[in-house]
Design brief:
Layout lengths: L5 H6 L15 E5 L4 H6 L10 H7 L20 E5 L13 H18 L3 E5 L1 H8 L7 E7 L2 E6 L11 H15 L1
Helix pairs in contact: 3-6, 4-5
Organism: Streptomyces mesophilus
Protein name: G/U mismatch-specific DNA glycosylase
EC number: 3.2.2.28
Length: 180
């Protein structure tokens, strides 16, 4: 993996990382926002401690663990990636409540246009902030967007230590089964 200098990472602040999307996906995964390493590399969930790629494989969504640079392969499995907020930051706590709400509006329009079977938001706090659903919990939600169902998954960040890769894979696996 490419090593980036502090200056290169700082220069990535505010960048937008292209979505990996197509119409009619089985699952559109939605992160909170790109981190600086993701923005510098252009690959979603690029930070080595992030467990998204291992958990995606452990849960059965992919036949092998993909590297972030292979993110476009997700489309062949009916999967995609977007974010609630497009702007890259070092930490999610740098985002404002207004950015979450506006990001939720943009995400709703994107989901209505792309019509995935499921929107999977990775992070209950981000879901609550973007959609104003303060009591939402991990799992399937009552909310639908267009014809798309919504599932909230645990955030795969290494900072989310009370979820192990295995317990996350079990929750992601529940979604995989629901998505067929």
């Amino acid at each position: 993996m490419t090593r980036y200098s502090r200056e290169e990472l700082e220069a990535a602040r505010g960048r937008i990382v292209d979505d990996v999307v197509a119409g009619g996906l089985r699952v559109l995964f939605c992160g909170i926002n790109p981190g600086l390493l993701t923005a510098a590399s252009g690959f979603h969930f690029a930070r080595p401690g992030n467990r998204f790629w291992p958990v995606l494989h452990l849960s059965g969504f992919t036949p092998r663990q993909l590297h972030p640079s292979e993110q476009r392969e997700l489309l062949s499995y009916g999967l995609g990636i977007t974010n609630v907020v497009a702007r890259a930051t070092a930490r999610a706590d740098e985002l404002t409540p207004q950015e979450y709400v506006e990001g939720g509006r943009i995400l709703e329009a994107k989901v209505e246009r792309l019509a995935p079977q499921w929107l999977a938001v990775v992070g209950v706090t981000a879901y609550r902030a973007a959609f104003g659903e303060r009591t939402a919990k991990i799992g399937p939600q009552e909310r639908t967007i267009g014809g798309s169902r919504v599932w909230v998954l645990p955030n795969p960040s290494g900072l989310n230590a009370h979820w192990t890769a295995q317990t996350m894979a079990e929750e992601y696996g529940r979604l995989r089964e629901a998505a067929g």
